[in-house]
Amino acid sequence: MNQIVLGPLVVAGAAAALALVIALVDRVVNDYGEVTIDVNHGKRAYKVRGGSPLLGTLASQGVFVPSACGGRGSCGACKVRVLSDVGPVLPTETPYLSPQELANGVRLSCQVKLKKDIAIELPEELFSVKKFKATVERLDDVTYDIKDAVFRLDEPAEISFTSGQYVQLVVPPYGTIKESVQRAYSMASRPGDSGRVELLIRLVPGGIATTYVHTALKVGDRVELVGPFGDFRVRDTPAAMVCVAGGSGMAPFKSMFYDMRERDAFPEKEIWYFFGARSSRDMFYLDELRRLEAEWPRFHFVPALSEPGPDEGWTGETGLITDVLERYIKDRIAKDKGLEGYLCGSPGMINACIAVMTRNGIAEGDVFYDKFA
Questions:
Q1: pLDDT attached to residue 13
Q2: Do 164 and 220 form a contact (C-beta atoms < 8 A)?
Q3: Alpha helices in 30-65 (DSSP H)
Q4: Tens digit of pLDDT for each residue in 160-202?
Q5: Among 259, 267, 261, 257, which residue's Cα sits nearest to residue 237?
Q6: Which domain holds residue 78?
Q7: What is the CB neighbour count within 10 angstroms for residue 238?
Q8: 48 and 102, same structural domain?
Q9: Quick one: 83 and 138 in the same domain?
Q10: Could you say which of 90, 125, 160 is where a domain stops?
Q11: Which residues contact 123 (CB under 8 A, 6 or more apart)?
């Protein structure tokens, strides 16, 4: 029995030791010296020490490429277009790259090691991304598994963003977690409140970041945030917004609606907001959103429960949110100015809503979404 147990442990230990030796040899023998990162055809250039992954090296220069996994090659978010030869695409990259991206030289920056001069292309908006230091100002339970976290940025820092964008929360080592990680969360705060960032964070069983927020983070703690990222935003058209969310997918819509109300932005747009939950304990902000509906004539709030209990006293819509959505598109929502879809939630929910929208006359190109990984 001891031999059965010890055998795999010996093999694992030997493999770990070999990996350490390889890393040390690579660091000593493969001294790549100084290399240049040419960005966007000479618009920017960084002279850096070679030998490290492109993702972290760019971050050391204040250029933050999105990465939800902290550079482990498991999220596929840190894509850049590489214009020079840096060697073959690695097996760790191919699951995250489409045939078109492979043909266009797109790579995962966390998997590209800087061994010589490199030329890359990056979206210009990434150069407005910053790392912010902040203090936890508020940490409230809005449901049994969702926390509303408000972070006050260190003065005089302010974050300039468009409602719908997200930030990455830097989670430090804690408990058995030995390395820092980053996870992406949509901002629920208004762009006008530029000294704060509000996030809605749902507890995911086994999730490194969500477990940290729900069990370890306290008011007064210091954190780091990186952002803003993303292109989920309100389009400047007269078309009505048909918005659907569930759970923490509430976040970008809260930002959008209160920003639009505050600035009287996109005044021709009617807004229909469908929020789905299983039971009453999964619902939150009901009073707040109903008050907004009463005060703002072009905003319409439609909460729905798919499995309300007999003792919940629920008087709103019932059934799957997709069924409720379809009924309203067919019978209630005016279509004279066109319709646009806005979705935030799980891939399954988003795909189901896209199917409902497209078969009811909304072009797929007019459906915009923020899909949870």
A1: 52
A2: no
A3: 54-60
A4: 999 999 999 999 999 998 888 889 999 999 999 999 999 999 9
A5: 267
A6: 34-125
A7: 13
A8: yes
A9: no
A10: 125
A11: none
